[in-house]
Specification:
Elements lengths: L9 H7 L8 H12 L3 H14 L4 H12 L8 H8 L3 E2 L12 E2 L1 H12 L3 H14 L4 H22 L3 E6 L10 E6 L5 E7 L5 E9 L2 E2 L3 E2 L1 H4 L4 E7 L6 E7 L2 E7 L1 E2 L2 E2 L3 E2 L10 E6 L5 E6 L9 E6 L10 E2 L10 E6 L5 E6 L9 E9 L2 E2 L3 E2 L13 E4 L4 E7 L7 E9 L7 E6 L1 E2 L10 E6 L5 E5 L7 E6 L3 E7 L6 E6 L8 E4 L2 E2 L6 H8 L12 H4 L8 H8 L26 E8 L15 E4 L5 E8 L2 H14 L5 E4 L2 H6 L7 E8 L14 E5 L5 E8 L2 H13 L6 E4 L7
Helix pairs in contact: 2-3, 3-4, 4-5, 5-6, 6-7, 7-8
Length: 739
């Protein structure tokens, strides 16, 4: 934090005021001198000592709080001291005077900033408004205070839509009680540099290599490269040949670089003019092709404070006169630490301006021309905090980053971490709610169970029961893909698939299951009336069994496939039947079932006027109705399916014609779905050998596997259904156009 203006007259006042308080005046002057030199740690230790003599002195509390605000990892400690000093804010404050017992007006600003760090944003806004009311005609400070207020409202807005990320430490070799700062990696993330604050305000530079995916033990290269004071790494060139560093000298700084020779880092070399000048120059970063250099300077032609500049390399390899990146990037406040991405199209930097939430925030801007940029975008909260976010090194296109963050396990010292920026909250929970209803109107839910299965692992996650009185249910699920089964005795299981793998915008997800009465299938009836020793199993020749899964319900079919509007498919909505056969002539009937032993019609359903037909194959077939057109037959069949016989299908009424028409298939497959538009096969990534076939009817049929026998197809069908494709059915490959 800059305080040069605040203490510009400190030396003069220090010589004028030498008496008046109970504490040691020499200590006071030494502390103020250290503060003027930005040696906050030394100054803070002395102010803390002086406070033991006068713990309620507003001036000492302010100065101690100000120092803490500028010490990494200790800013929040400042709030108790600034709070004590704030009631004594005065327009007559005398800087550098040991006699002073009030605090300057600035205490309200710093107290507001400290309150914001504690997430007490309303208090921060209150203090800043009070500060403005006392400033009089100081337009620069009023503008700054208003910007701080605006940042409070921006912070509240960004907190409502946080950015999510995962954090991983860089391994045991890089975890220690030494506070690490300014992490820098090369573009392929195999070289890492960072700085550690040493004694007497001297920095040490460390280097680590990633070997077989593990960061090596860091090596201190301070002596090799010639660091003698404050210094930190800024960037690595894309060819890995140069490491740029910033070297501070008093109130200015310069850009240096180093390189390796014979696997040894060489002494730093200062960049010549026109990059380095008489003022502040820092934070250099090369473009991917090495033809541009981005850096920070406070030159006179800037927009205020620190600005970002760009210099191009001429034909002789010399850097040309730098140009300011313009007011799209630079503001009246400070912009620092530029980092260009791997293809030179995106610039990351830190700024106290723009749409800021506090201190230095991280922004990026997309390049649209040689030196043209889009409006910078704040990367969001909590990647940006209410504090100065200085130690953030983006990687790739910004989806990853290396960062130094405070580690509570090491007394708040900063350790290095790898961040992966996520698109949504990985820990978000979705509330599943709804009400079960039975087809027959039953209100007995005592034996009803809800089973949740992961479609990724096929494991049952948990089971819950609905409210016994009304069938209402509610439970939570995290990210993932699930199959939810609603189970009740004597009712068909209702299955619902949900996909929360890539996020879901709402907090609630509603399901209203409708459970239908169970209808025994043909094989169950046949088993019930056939002696076990006869081992009767098939109720139709294999060549016609497939037809039990067919339908010509074109209206119902089209209403489903036309509703598909994206790559996401809701399998529950797709019927398990589809039109295949085009009966050209003859009269039609509806076959309900078939069996080896005869079943009397009154044992089935007298109201359907069931007729029994027996063919040369010795099978008894149970049919109902005779229809002239398919339309009439289809209407009747749909009604029959709704009432009881789920596998009813249309066939020729003439049994001989019916038996002679089908062609015995040689292989079988499992049809998963049929749609009027093609979707990506990756939508069915839980299945193997998925094929899509499109016939003359322009229907896309999706199948999995090919089997030599019906038995083999049946065995696999169970697995397919367990994976969530409840409407899958067996089909002869010869019946699929363009298979």
């Amino acid at each position: 934090m800059k305080i040069k203006a605040l203490f510009s007259c400190l030396l003069l006042y220090s010589m004028l005021f030498v008496s008046g308080q109970n504490f040691n005046k020499t200590d006071f002057f030494e502390a103020d001198m250290a503060l003027l030199q930005n040696d906050y740690e030394k100054a803070q230790k002395t102010y803390e000592k002086l406070l033991r003599s006068e713990p309620d002195n507003p001036n000492l509390n302010f100065l101690n709080g100000l120092c803490l605000m500028n010490i990494v990892g200790r800013k929040k400690e400042s709030i108790e001291f600034l709070k004590k000093a704030a009631p004594f804010a005065s327009t007559d404050y005398k800087y550098g005077s040991p006699k002073e017992t009030n605090a300057p007006l600035e205490v309200l600003k710093y107290y507001a900033i400290a309150s914001k760090l504690e997430n007490n944003i309303p208090k921060a806004i209150e203090l800043l408004n009070q500060y403005i009311s006392l400033l009089g005609k100081d337009q620069d400070e009023i503008e700054l205070a208003n910007q701080l207020i605006e940042s409070c409202y921006t912070a509240q807005k960004m907190q409502e839509n946080p950015v999510y990320y995962t954090k991983t430490d860089l391994g045991s070799s890089l975890i220690s009680d030494k506070s690490k700062q300014y992490p820098v990696v090369n573009h392929d993330e195999t070289m890492l540099f960072y700085s550690v604050k040493g004694k007497y305000n001297k920095d040490d530079i460390y280097y680590s290599e990633k070997i077989s995916g593990i960061w090596s033990e860091p090596v201190k290269i301070t002596t090799y490269i010639g660091v003698k004071g404050e210094c930190y790494p800024s960037s690595v060139s894309f060819d890995n040949e140069r490491i740029y560093l910033t070297v501070k000298t008093g109130i200015s700084s310069d850009i240096y670089y180093t390189f390796q020779k014979n696997k040894r880092w060489q002494k730093m070399i200062r960049l010549d003019k026109p990059v380095n000048g008489k003022d502040w120059d820092s934070d250099a970063c090369e473009s991917p092709d090495g033809r541009e250099l981005y850096f920070v300077s406070d030159r006179k032609d800037g927009y205020g404070g620190m600005d970002i500049y760009r210099s191009e390399k001429d034909e002789k390899g010399k850097w040309e006169k730098p140009e300011n990146l313009g007011d799209k990037i630079n503001t009246k406040r400070n912009e620092i630490m530029p980092v260009i991405n791997y293809d030179g199209t995106k610039l990351f930097f830190k700024s106290e301006g723009h749409e800021n939430i506090g201190g230095y925030d991280i922004f990026y801007s997309v390049r649209t021309g040689s030196n043209e940029w889009e409006t910078p975008v704040n990367i969001g909260y909590p990647l940006n905090t209410f504090d100065d976010d200085m130690y953030y090194m983006p990687s790739g296109n910004g989806s990853y980053a290396y960062v130094a963050m405070s580690d509570p396990a090491y007394d708040g010292n900063y350790n290095l971490y790898y961040l992966e920026i996520l698109q949504d909250d990985p820990y978000k929970r979705y509330k599943i709610t709804g009400q079960i209803a039975f087809q027959d109107g039953s209100t007995d839910f005592t034996s009803t169970n809800i089973e949740v299965i992961s479609t990724e692992t096929h494991d049952k996650i948990f089971s819950v029961v609905p409210d016994e009185t009304d069938g209402n249910f509610s439970f939570e699920l995290g990210k993932g893909n699930y199959m939810i089964n609603f189970i009740a005795p004597e009712y068909n299981t209702y299955t619902h698939m949900v996909d929360f793998s890539s996020g879901y915008s709402e907090d609630y997800y509603y399901i209203y299951p409708f459970l239908e009465k169970t209808v025994p299938d043909i094989e169950e009836i046949a088993a019930a009336i056939t002696p076990i020793e006869e081992k009767s199993e098939i109720v139709e020749p294999e060549s016609t069994l497939i037809e039990e899964y067919e339908s010509t319900d074109e209206t119902a079919y089209e209403s489903v496939v036309e509703s598909v509007a994206s790559e996401t498919v809701t399998y529950d909505d797709i019927p398990d039947t589809e039109p295949v056969y085009d009966y050209e002539n003859g009269k039609y009937t509806i076959q309900l079932m078939a069996s080896v032993q005869r079943v009397e019609p009154d044992e089935l359903n007298n109201s359907l006027n069931i007729e029994i037909q027996k063919g040369k194959d010795e099978y008894y077939r149970y049919v109902t109705g005779v229809y002239k057109t398919l339309t009439e037959a289809e209407s009747a069949k749909n009604e029959i399916i709704r009432t009881k016989y789920k596998t009813a299908f249309i066939r020729y009424y003439n049994l001989e014609e019916y038996l002679n028409t089908p062609v015995r298939p040689t292989t079988y497959t499992i049809q998963v779905m049929a749609l009027k538009r093609e979707i990506a096969l990756t939508a069915m990534n839980s299945l193997s050998d998925v094929k899509v076939s499109c016939g003359e009817d322009q229907i896309y049929r999706y199948t999995t596997g090919e089997y030599a026998s019906l038995a083999a197809a049946r065995n696999e069908l169970k697995n397919v259904i367990q994976k969530g494709y409840k409407t899958a059915f067996i089909k002869a490959t010869s019946d699929i156009s363009n298979y």
